[in-house]
Every structure is written in structure tokens, then in C-alpha cells.
Design brief:
Elements lengths: L1 H12 L3 H24 L6 E3 H13 L5 E7 L3 E3 H21 L7 E10 L2 E8 L16 H12 L3 E5 L4 E7 L3
Parallel strand pairs: 2-4
Antiparallel strand pairs: 1-3, 4-5, 5-7, 6-7
């Protein structure tokens, strides 16, 4: 309901800066609401299949652009709801940035998303063949709220990440699965 009201407000603002802000907020809310929708259809309120949850949020974020081809791959990963919400926020932030900035001028491109089991937990990889990051880019000094949020949440879930911004952008986020 909240996401719907924000979408309605977004259409009233047209192409202005307010519209973009409302769109970003709407995407974040939808990511969290998808988890609650999933919980209503399962037998557990403490654990969730991360692959089912991420399947529900990845494609809708990328589908806002007709120029991006998406490939997805998922292993089955079951984890606590609280950690799944955190990962949903991370994935939404990274995908939103890719859609906004990786393909300037409506350039066509591809984006790949995968969730894999590892010996120590699981790993999410998000990569695109877009513009990449500037040569002097340092994520630790980036002013973007989205980057700060991603790094903070990765730390909270006791995860680790790597970020490569050459020849497109590739995130690898490893995290424990309880």
C-alpha cells in the first residue's frame, strides 16, 4: 500500500528530482514487502529461502530499463529473515545503481546476478558490462548514501566484499549462513 502511494506521488512529479527520489524509496519498500509476502506463503516465520526472495526482487529492479538484458542463477539458500532483509537491501541498492549509471545514454548492456552456496556460507555476485567506475574511485570515501548503506550492512551481517570497476562493474559479497 505504501509503495503504491509513493508510485502515485512519483507520477505527479514527472521527470523532476523528486520523482527519482520517490522511485528509489519505492524500490526499497517493494524489496522489503516482497519478503513479507513470501513469509505469508511459507510455514516458517524465522527462516526464508533467500533464492525465492531474491528472485522476486532482482528482475523488477532491472526491468525498469528495456536496454538491459538480465541473466540470473540461484542456488537454494535458507537463512534467517533478518539477514535476508539485509541482503535484499544490499541487492536493491547495487542493482538500482547499475540500472541508473552503468549504461549512460540508454546504451544497451547486460547484467548478471547469481547466488551461490560456498563452503563458508553463500556469495552474491552482481556484474554488468557497463561504463564501470572512475579510475580514482574509492568506495570508502564515496559520498553516496547507497554505497554507505551497502558497506554498513555487509559489516553488520559479518560479510565481506570485493568490488571491481574495470570493464563494467562486479560486486562479490560473501556472507555466513546460520
Amino acid at each position: 500500500m505504501i509503495a503504491g502511494m509513493i508510485s502515485l506521488a512519483e507520477t505527479n512529479y514527472g521527470e523532476g528530482g523528486e520523482s527519482g527520489i520517490l522511485h528509489d524509496v519505492s524500490i526499497r519498500i517493494r524489496a522489503i514487502s516482497e519478503l513479507y509476502d513470501l513469509l505469508y506463503t511459507t510455514d516458517s516465520i524465522t527462516d526464508v529461502r533467500l533464492d525465492d526472495y531474491l528472485t522476486r526482487i532482482v528482475a523488477p529492479v532491472v526491468r525498469v530499463s528495456d536496454n538491459i538484458e538480465l541473466s540470473e542463477s540461484y542456488d537454494t539458500v535458507v537463512m534467517p529473515v533478518k539477514s535476508a532483509i539485509s541482503l535484499g537491501i544490499i541487492v536493491t541498492e547495487i542493482l538500482t545503481n547499475a540500472v541508473k549509471y552503468a549504461f549512460p545514454g540508454n546504451r544497451k548492456g547486460s547484467l548478471s546476478f547469481s547466488l551461490r552456496k560456498t563452503d563458508t556460507g553463500a556469495m552474491i555476485e552482481i556484474s554488468d558490462d557497463g561504463a564501470g567506475l572512475p579510475d580514482n574511485f574509492d568506495i570508502s570515501t564515496a559520498h553516496s548514501l547507497g554505497f554507505k548503506l551497502v558497506l554498513m550492512i555487509i559489516k553488520q551481517i559479518k560479510g565481506d566484499y570485493s568490488l571491481d570497476g574495470k570493464n563494467g562493474t562486479r560486486w562479490r559479497i560473501s556472507f555466513p549462513v546460520d
